Structure formats: structure tokens, C-alpha cells
Inverse folding.
């Protein structure tokens, strides 16, 4: 498999901990993925416990749906989706924060989007020569209520020994400062991992906890740079890179698709929150190319 990135792009990734590759995805493929995500939402029937997604460490509640979603497809609501009486403020299609976390293996459109020779080549170029597709998320960043994703490091949530998690974030729509684009700390991947998010016990009912590893605070938003990118852009994110996105206060959505991969050679402990059953093994990007 030949190189996809140039030497200059690889150097920028190593220097900054992130890399934006414009034009990586054709517009028609972005349209197809968006349609597939909207169909999943249309067919989604929430349980009585309507799962809300939050990255606030003090408010995170990990219910059974969240902990079981590593091997399924589940829709998570925005924090501000419900009124005081528990009803939706907006239509369901405009109230979902994200879909997660195994569409790349369960939905044919997401599968075809995720397992491509070009993406496998990018993974190899940035040093992930045996990338396993671990987690997928379709993020809506809904108009006016699209929630903030607090500054974090992906390795906090998907820890391996050694740390190998790499994020592949695709702009399905234009991402701007107004509608909640990514922000990142250039060179921040050369700092320590601050915490790990882990299961508190052996069952989904036991919940989760954060364990602090380093007291160094994560950067404030004022210390980050905006990654404004057009639709079709791939942004590669190192697992230790601090990054953040603001609330979407605009009338324009900011759809994105994120695929997180880890090395097949690394240890992925059973205390990680995201687990898959033995009959649903992870697949390598370079051996499961569809189409």
C-alpha cells in the first residue's frame, strides 16, 4: 500500500499532533453518510431512559445504553434537548447529539466509508501500521443547541499500552468557529495523559470513574487554535492531543464523523469503558477494505 500523505504532511502531524487533509472525501460520499445517519435517527426509538451525552466529568452518567454501545448503534440526545417537563424542545432529528459506537461494522454505508485503502494508508503514514477500527461516532452539532465537548485527550477514553489511539475526524459539513469547529493545542500531544476513564466494576451496572494520572491542567480554550475546515476534510488527531469544540450557537449544523483506531499490537484492557463481545472482533483497516 503506497503512501497517501506527503513527507511535509507527516512532519506537520508529528510537530502539531494533528493534520487537516482537505478534499479527502468526495461530496457525494459525505451526502451518503449524512443520509445514512439521518435514517438511523428516524428509526431510533428511545427507551424510557433517554440517554444524554455529556463530556462534563462532574455530570457524566454512564447508563447501560452507553456502556453497551461499543457493540451497537445508539442515539444520544443533546443536554439541552428536553424541557422542564421532559419533552423534546425540538423535533427528534434536531435533538440528537451523536450516534455511537459501532456503525462502522454494523451499517453498510458507514462500513464502506470507514474501511478504505486511502484511510488505511493515512494510518500507516502516521505510524499506525496495524490499525484496528475501534469506535465510530456520527456527531450532529445541532443548530443552536449543539453541545460543547470539553477539552480532552482521546487516550483518556480509549487507553492502550502503549498509547496508540488515533482519531480520524471527517467534516461532513463545513466546520467554522460559528458552528462549533474543533480547536486544538499544537504540540500538546507531547504532554502527559491527564486521566483515564474506566469501568468501576465488571458489569455495565457498576458505572464508571475517572482516575487522575497527572495534575497538569488541560489547556484553556484561549490557548487553542481553531481548525476551521470545509466539508470533505479529514482531520487526524493524536491520542494525547488536547482538543475541544464549543457550543453551536449558530442556526447551521456541523455534522462530522469520527473513527478511532488503535494498534493491534497494543494491550486494550478490560477496564476500558468500550468493550465488544468475543463474536464481534475488531477489524484492521488494511484487511477489511470494502468496495
Amino acid at each position: 500500500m503506497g503512501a497517501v500523505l506527503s513527507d511535509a504532511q507527516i512532519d506537520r502531524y508529528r510537530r502539531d499532533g494533528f493534520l487537516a487533509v482537505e478534499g479527502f472525501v468526495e461530496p457525494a460520499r459525505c451526502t451518503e453518510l449524512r443520509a445514512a445517519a439521518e435514517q438511523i435517527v428516524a428509526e431510533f426509538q428511545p427507551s424510557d431512559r433517554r440517554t444524554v451525552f455529556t463530556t462534563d466529568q462532574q455530570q457524566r452518567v454512564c447508563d447501560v445504553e452507553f456502556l453497551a454501545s461499543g457493540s451497537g448503534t445508539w442515539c444520544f440526545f443533546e443536554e439541552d434537548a428536553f424541557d422542564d417537563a421532559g419533552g423534546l424542545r425540538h423535533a427528534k432529528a434536531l435533538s440528537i447529539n451523536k450516534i455511537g459506537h459501532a456503525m462502522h461494522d454494523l451499517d453498510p454505508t458507514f462500513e464502506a466509508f470507514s474501511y478504505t485503502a486511502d484511510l488505511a494508508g493515512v494510518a500507516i503514514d502516521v505510524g499506525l501500521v496495524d490499525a484496528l477500527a475501534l469506535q465510530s461516532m456520527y456527531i450532529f452539532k445541532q443548530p443552536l443547541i449543539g453541545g460543547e465537548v470539553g477539552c480532552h485527550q482521546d487516550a483518556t477514553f480509549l487507553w492502550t499500552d502503549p498509547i496508540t489511539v488515533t482519531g480520524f475526524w471527517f467534516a461532513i459539513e463545513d466546520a467554522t468557529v460559528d458552528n462549533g469547529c474543533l480547536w486544538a493545542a499544537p504540540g500538546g500531544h507531547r504532554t502527559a495523559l491527564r486521566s483515564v476513564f474506566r469501568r468501576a466494576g465488571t458489569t455495565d451496572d457498576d458505572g464508571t470513574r475517572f482516575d487522575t494520572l497527572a495534575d497538569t491542567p488541560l489547556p484553556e480554550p484561549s490557548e487553542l487554535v481553531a481548525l476551521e475546515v470545509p466539508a470533505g476534510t479529514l482531520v487526524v488527531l493524536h491520542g494525547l492531543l488536547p482538543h475541544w469544540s464549543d457550543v453551536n450557537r449558530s442556526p447551521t449544523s456541523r455534522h462530522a464523523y469520527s473513527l478511532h483506531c488503535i494498534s493491534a499490537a497494543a494491550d486494550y484492557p478490560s477496564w476500558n469503558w468500550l468493550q465488544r463481545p468475543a463474536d464481534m472482533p475488531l477489524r484492521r483497516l488494511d484487511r477489511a477494505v470494502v468496495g
